[in-house]
Amino acid sequence: MIPRYQRIVFFVLLLVSISMAVVLVRLREKAHERLLKGEDLAPTTAPVVAPAEAATLLVANDLDGTLLPEQQSLPLPQDPEARGRALLLKLLEIYGGPDAAHPVPFVARAVQQVFLLPVPEAAESRGAGDALLGGQLAVVNLSGSFADGHPAGIEAETLTVLSICGTLHANLPQISEVRFLVDGKPRATLAGHADLTRTYLTTESVSGANALGDKP
What we know:
Blueprint: H1 4-41, E1 52-61, E2 66-75, H2 80-95, E3 111-118, H3 120-126, E4 136-142, H4 144-149, H5 154-171, E5 175-182, E6 200-201, H6 205-213
Parallel strand pairs: 4-5
Antiparallel strand pairs: 1-2, 3-4, 5-6
Helix pairs in contact: 2-5, 5-6
């Protein structure tokens, strides 16, 4: 004859097993409901891709120390800041190519952000409402890995800086000045030579590169 305590234990275990089975079935039903709901909310059309547009990149050439305009067809966002970042990423991608005339190691996120601000002098002289008439200041935030891996040398670094400035101005002509950050912080130089503490005028980018090319 089965002892009384064993029968009690048996019925308790049976009740626990039945309860767990019910809970598991309910959890499975809820998971299925969430899956169906997710399918209902999923987009039925492909995301819109920005159309390709003509862009001009000022590409550096180490052989003669100049900047050469290169036409590209790129999918560019409408937002000016995102547009500037996309242009610079393409420029630095060219520098990372195997046959680049200005070789710089490729870094996937070399440009972290591009911020556009009213030029400080214009904001003071014209007032807040007319600040944009005086041009915009682009703040280019480079990644530390890009700066650390950039070839050292005054000409190599200066060409990179000037090509960035020239490319921004060629496609966003309202940009009249450029400043640089690295990982969101000020940095003295790009790779030991090109000054990153100063403000660069975009109108000087081509003349500055030509001056490098005229050096004996």
